[in-house]
Design goal:
Blueprint (H helix, E strand, L loop, with lengths): L12 H5 L3 H22 L32 H37 L1 H15 L3 H12 L3 H27 L3 H8 L4 H37 L11 H8 L8 H28 L1 H6 L1
């Protein structure tokens, strides 16, 4: 007879993940939004570029589940297409922030002294310009558009990831295994790649999830102000802008895109919280 020596703390990562309610809820929302965005490349109930004035501001019905807007466009179809725009902007912006911020943060932690001070002061300079202000400056020069929104949000993400990476790296550098690596003759760059980054990957993953949610929210805000994706490309923020003067006559024009933003951002935040709980060593010991 075989005796199992498995303990509660040795449960697999998948079992811990799907026992975490925050992770499950966030994961379901993320999968549904991603599936909706991918499906919009192949099929939507109606063509979002087709204007049918005779069908303008129709309430939700079996023909148009979420109703139509002031141009007769199907709101469900526009939300589906708008999802892929929001995801693309947020994903690339997070990639920009992580791609530049993490090297800056780990370099500051590895070098210390004047290099650390100089990089962090530069970091503070970027952090002083929020995404909205950066977008206004960029669009004043290059004009509005999704690419400029990506650049603006990405610039804002750089100091966020730099701070997280630096704080995490500073907590790892004094560890015994890092001191042993230095004693073995490894340089700062090699130690950063082999020891620092793997140990702060959880921090970066959680922060990436949070920034992804904030990126979707920022993209909606920029599109609402006319600085994001331009017509005829649907955007959740642009849909809210178009609905603001029709709240009394066609409230569904604001309700459904607003719900899409709220549910997506909330789901991604729950997903980030769940990932943090699952990968937290203290949580694993308590499991």
């Amino acid at each position: 007879m075989t005796v199992s020596h498995e303990t509660p703390g040795s449960r697999s990562l998948a079992s811990r993940a799907f026992a975490n309610r925050s992770f499950v809820a966030g994961f379901i929302v993320a999968v549904l939004v991603a599936a909706m965005a991918l499906l919009s490349y192949l099929w939507t109930p109606y063509d979002v570029t087709r204007l049918v004035i005779s069908d303008k501001t129709l309430p939700p019905s079996s023909a148009h589940w979420f109703g139509t807007d002031h141009f007769g466009r199907d709101i469900l179809s526009m939300i589906m297409v708008g999802a892929r725009n929001s995801i693309a902007v947020a994903l690339v912006a997070v990639g920009i922030g992580m791609g530049f911020g993490v090297p800056l943060g780990t370099l500051a932690a590895a070098r210390g002294g004047l290099v650390d001070d100089a990089l962090m002061r530069l970091n503070d300079l970027f952090f002083a310009f929020p995404a909205l202000l950066s977008a206004i400056m960029i669009t004043a020069i290059f004009g509005p558009g999704a690419v400029n929104a990506i650049i603006a949000i990405g610039i804002f993400n750089i100091p966020v990831f730099a701070r997280v990476a630096r704080a995490g790296a500073l907590s790892i550098w004094p560890r015994e295994f890092v001191l042993a690596a230095r004693a073995a003759g490894k340089g700062p760059a090699r130690i950063t790649v082999e020891h620092i980054l793997p140990n702060i990957a959880t921090l970066l993953l959680v922060q990436g999830t949070i920034q992804f949610a904030l990126g979707i929210l920022a993209e909606a805000g920029l599109s609402y102000l006319g600085l994001g994706a331009q017509p005829p490309m649907p955007s959740w923020g642009r849909m809210l802008f178009d609905a603001q003067t029709r709240m009394a006559t066609a409230p569904w024009m604001a309700i459904f895109p607003g719900m899409a933003i709220v549910i997506t951002v909330l789901g991604l935040n729950l997903l980030g919280d769940g990932i943090a709980d699952i990968l937290d060593p203290k949580s694993r010991r308590r499991a």
